[in-house]
Amino acid sequence: MTDSTVPSKLIKEKNIGIATLLAFAMIPMSGFATDIYIPSLPGMTAALGISNSQAQLTLSLFLISYGVSQLFIGGLLDSYGRYKISLFSILIFCLSCVIIANTHSIYVIYAMRIVHGITIAAMVVAKRAFFVDLFSGERLKHYLSLFTIIWSTGPIVAPFIGGYLEVSFGWESNFYFLAIIAAMLFVMEAAFSGETLKHPTPFHLTNITRIYTHMLQTESFVLGILMLGLGYSMVMVYNMSGPFIIEHHFNFSPVVTGYCSLLLGFAWLVGGFAGKALINRPFNRKITTNVVLQLLYAVIMLLTLQRLHTLPVILLFAFLIHVSAGFTHNNYFTYCLSKFPKNAAIAGGLTGGLCNVIVSFLSYVMTATIPASDGGNLGVSYLVLILASILVMWRVNVISKKVEM
Description:
This protein is mostly helical. The chain has a single domain, classed as Growth Hormone, Chain: A. About 80% of the residues lie in helices and about 0% in strands. The mean pLDDT is about 85. It is a multi-pass membrane protein.
């Protein structure tokens, strides 16, 4: 083992409590970076003189870089530690937010959103591994099941704040807000946190590749990631379509967009709580039932919108579908992160990375092929993703029956 793999500042026992709170505070940062400027997407298109698809691409580029970075960052975190990489990433994220707020070049914004994805990936994967480093057994399972719930505070609060910031100060204020939050986290992290990796794994590309290969050959793990991607794609399709439906089709303000996102963020939170409450119920049965309910919601949504195309109807069925998506995500996220405890950062990075690559691809393709014109198109997008989820769950059940035999 080289000196570069030896952590320098181990976390102090007395600081574990506050460091745990800071770790939980950092989990929603990916949601904040994604969702706070959703109400500003129509405003950005006007201010920057760009198309809807160009504005939506800022979301997709973030998700792609966030996902791809997680595929590789886990190996670095398992070898060089969590603390310094995470701390440096917070600082870079803060500076890149300031750059976005002071430019009107869409290409600079694209570049900085890619930087956002890389730095947020390092921060979030490091904090996921933080819990696996310090806790085990039922306590670890409890903390992991809280991830979806804690993360959902971002999609709940961020668009609500972003709507008011957009109306009061313009789209740039969203990124100043993110910079302030990041600066506060940087100061707190530097003062109270520290390294949790006591036994680093030497960075040998061959060994790390072998670990990745083993994980990717575990079909139940890969199918779990696919279910995560399909579930969150339902949320992201709304995030990319909803502002244009609300502000262009129904002619409401960005504040209304923020309130709608607040409601649907709460739906994700409800799904997370339901997943945690039923965590000990038979796994495949509860997920299959949940996906079938989603299918029912989507079909009724499309039938209802043919006769009554109103925003409350869209929100009602989107709420039910997002509750179910949050339920699936809570269960499968806990499952995937606890699958390989000896390689926590790699497993966490691979889970989050592949999930976000899937989400970025599916959400962009869906919004490109089924434009954000009305609630009917949103319902069709939901239906396609739900049917894909049903196919995946069919395969999961087939594998489970083989294992039982």
